[in-house]
């Protein structure tokens, strides 16, 4: 083949350059023309995309030789059918089936997921039937004016077809399983059969007083075993076939798979469930003859030779099949043309393209590629296949670092969403008038007391904003002259919230909402820390203030117990302020029990509102 290519190339060169037509004017010397063509022919051209695709497609052409064997349940299906055979004998058959096997070899073509296979197959299967005769076989005894009756009982027939088949199967192969379906054409070469049972003989004499005489040894009216053997001859057998199974080599260790793939001719193994179902074309068979205990003879036919069988019997073989495949060709290595690797950046909040994003693309080798996305938020370049790491950053956005991406031989895109730097916005208002308040907001870690930012609002805009780090939990502490201070946890650093401050009004009770006590106890729970801190800040920042702490309860329990509980809780709050450094003379503590409810005591929600601690500025 290689020599033929060289011969064709030489002929083309001669026809194209060295042999001018008769009468034509030759502008260049033949020698120079030949030399130029030789240089051109020796130049190696790069494959076009179409040529590369065609080359790589041929990589998937896999040619296998396979060998298989299978076994399972089989038979010539004819359950419950009636038949007539031999003389006046009629009856029905009951299919019971048997066992079968098959052996085969052939060729299989595999292209990507597609499978095509063909090859010779040998099938051997047995089929059993119970035969129930409804009428006896009768022979007249004319000299005695009698009739001899042969009753066939406990009859069974066994068939053993041997077939040579030619399957043609189509299918598909997936990761760990496969399926195939198709047809088989074959010839039944030999089918021995046998019938076994008992024959029971009686004699009918119209002149006798009994209907039938039985068990009369001298007249041959006895019971004896019955056996018939013979051979049936069949014709073509058209069969539909299907199988589904798993690839065993995919279930083995990875080391075995790697070593097998490195062989010049790797092996594959499969195990599957299969089913063959067909309609044989029967031909005439032999008729068996049986001699009774007398000189008379009776004859029966095989079930397959009956008047019923030729168009009503189907071959069946279902079972398990094991296949071994030997790959005859080595899969050629792929040729690659670097595909485009594109990076698309967008605003993850607005879902819009983001231009001017600085990229650093690091491959498995070499220096990082540093580029920026264009106006459509895209940067693309042909890159070799391999693992890549991409960093993306832009002012006003949180950077993305270490994005892993595997770039294959085809075009692909890395999508990177950048989140804008979170901005926390807030508004401070008067709880009574709703007007903006000139306040100061400090932002502190939840587990610390050192502010990371301080923002002031005014009575015109009343709002403020701050950019907080995203790697932490924060709280806001708001203070303003003539207002009670307020502290709250920040749930989302990229949100907007509205806060209302309570003005300091003397002689008016203000509920302290963030104070919590253990049930029926004066012990302050840890979750009261924010409320206690606000109260401390109020007293610490307004040294001239004097306050009264008033405790209230619901109506559950006695009046005396509720009075003591309310006094104890008010005293616990005072003690906590003193412990933090507030002079005891600035705080009064009072308990009023259940005397001043602000809601009903008939519901749990009402009772919860009645259990409260109030603050009165003196």
Task: Walk me through this protein's architecture.
It is a single chain. The protein is mainly β. The chain has 4 domains: 61-137 and 154-197 and 225-327, Beta Barrel (Porin); 340-418, Carboxypeptidase-like, regulatory domain (Immunoglobulin-like, Sandwich), CATH 2.60.40; 422-503, Sandwich (Immunoglobulin-like); 505-618, 60s Ribosomal Protein L30, Chain: A. The chain is built from 7 helices and 37 strands. The strands form 7 sheets. The protein has a 16-stranded antiparallel β-sheet that branches. Helix 1 packs across helix 2 (30-42). The radius of gyration is 50 Å and the shape is elongated. The model is unreliable at 1-44 and 283-295 (pLDDT under 50).
Q: Beta fraction of the residues?
A: over 45%
Calculate Rg over CA atoms: 50 Å
Overall spatial form: elongated
Measured distance between first and last alpha carbons: 113 Å
CATH class annotation of the largest domain: Mainly Beta
Percent of residues in helices = 10-25%
Name a few traits of the molecule:
618 residues, mainly beta, Porin, Immunoglobulin-like, four-stranded mixed beta sheet
Write the layout of secondary structure elements.
Elements: H1 2-18, H2 30-42, H3 49-58, E1 61-77, E2 82-84, E3 90-95, E4 98-111, E5 114-118, E6 121-125, E7 127-133, E8 137-141, E9 146-159, E10 162-173, E11 177-204, E12 213-214, E13 223-232, E14 234-247, H4 254-262, E15 267-282, E16 288-291, E17 297-300, E18 314-327, E19 340-347, E20 352-353, E21 358-362, E22 369-372, E23 378-382, E24 386-393, E25 400-407, E26 412-418, E27 424-430, E28 440-445, E29 453-456, E30 463-466, E31 474-479, E32 486-490, E33 496-501, E34 509-511, H5 529-541, E35 547-552, H6 559-580, E36 587-591, H7 604-610, E37 612-617
Helix pairs in contact: 1-2
């Amino acid at each position: 083949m290689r020599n033929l290519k060289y011969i064709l190339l030489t002929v083309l060169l001669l026809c194209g350059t060295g042999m001018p037509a008769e009468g034509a004017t030759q502008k260049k010397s033949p020698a120079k023309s030949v030399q130029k063509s030789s240089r051109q022919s020796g130049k190696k051209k790069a494959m076009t995309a179409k040529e590369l695709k065609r080359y790589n497609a041929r990589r998937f052409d896999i040619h296998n030789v396979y060998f298989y064997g299978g076994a399972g349940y089989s038979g010539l299906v004819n359950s419950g059918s009636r038949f007539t055979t031999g003389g006046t004998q009629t009856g029905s058959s009951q299919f019971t089936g048997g066992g079968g096997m098959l052996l085969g070899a052939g060729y299989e073509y595999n292209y990507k997921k597609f499978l095509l296979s063909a090859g010779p197959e040998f099938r051997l299967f047995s089929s059993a039937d119970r035969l129930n005769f409804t009428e006896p076989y009768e022979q007249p005894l004319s000299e005695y004016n009698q009739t001899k009756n042969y009753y066939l009982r406990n009859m069974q027939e066994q068939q053993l077809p041997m077939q040579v088949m030619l399957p043609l199967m189509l299918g598909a192969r997936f990761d760990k399983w496969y399926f195939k379906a198709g047809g088989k054409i074959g010839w039944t070469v030999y089918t021995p059969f046998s019938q076994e049972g008992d024959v029971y003989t009686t004699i009918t004499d119209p002149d006798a007083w009994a209907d039938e005489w039985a068990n009369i040894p001298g007249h041959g009216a006895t019971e004896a075993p019955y056996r018939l053997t013979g051979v049936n001859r069949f014709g073509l057998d058209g069969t539909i076939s299907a199988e589904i199974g798993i690839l065993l080599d995919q279930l083995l260790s990875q080391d075995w798979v790697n070593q097998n793939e490195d062989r010049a001719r790797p092996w594959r193994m499969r195990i599957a469930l299969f089913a063959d179902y067909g309609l044989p074309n029967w031909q005439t068979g032999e008729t068996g003859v049986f001699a009774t205990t007398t000189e008379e003879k009776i004859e029966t036919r095989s079930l397959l030779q009956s008047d019923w069988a030729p168009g009503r019997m189907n071959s069946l073989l279902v079972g398990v099949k094991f296949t071994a495949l030997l790959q005859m060709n080595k899969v050629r290595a792929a040729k690659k043309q670097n595909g485009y690797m594109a990076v698309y950046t967008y605003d993850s909040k607005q879902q819009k393209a983001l231009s001017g994003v600085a990229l650093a693309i690091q491959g498995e080798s070499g220096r990082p590629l540093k580029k920026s996305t264009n106006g459509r938020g895209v940067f693309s370049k042909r890159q070799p296949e391999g693992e890549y790491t991409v960093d993306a950053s832009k002012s006003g956005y949180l950077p993305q670092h270490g994005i892993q991406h595997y770039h294959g031989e085809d075009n692909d895109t890395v999508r990177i969403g950048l989140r804008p730097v979170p901005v926390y916005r807030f508004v401070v208002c008067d709880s009574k008038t709703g007007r903006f308040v000139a306040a100061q907001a400090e932002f502190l870690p939840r587990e610390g007391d050192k502010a990371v930012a301080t923002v002031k609002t005014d009575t015109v805009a009343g709002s403020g904003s701050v950019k907080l780090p995203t790697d932490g939990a924060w709280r806001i502490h708001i203070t303003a002259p003539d207002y009670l201070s307020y502290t709250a946890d920040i749930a989302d650093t990229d949100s907007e919230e509205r806060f209302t401050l309570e003005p300091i009004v003397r002689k008016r009770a203000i509920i302290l909402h963030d104070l919590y006590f253990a049930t029926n106890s004066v012990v302050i729970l840890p979750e009261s820390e924010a409320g206690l801190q606000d109260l401390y800040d109020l007293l610490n920042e307004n040294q001239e203030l004097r306050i009264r702490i008033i405790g209230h309860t619901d109506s559950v329990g006695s009046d005396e117990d509720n009075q003591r509980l309310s006094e104890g809780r008010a005293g616990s709050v005072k003690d906590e302020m003193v412990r933090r450094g507030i002079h005891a003379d600035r705080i009064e503590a009072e308990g009023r029990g259940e005397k001043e409810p602000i809601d009903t005591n008939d519901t749990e929600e009402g009772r919860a509102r009645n259990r409260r601690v109030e603050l009165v500025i003196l």
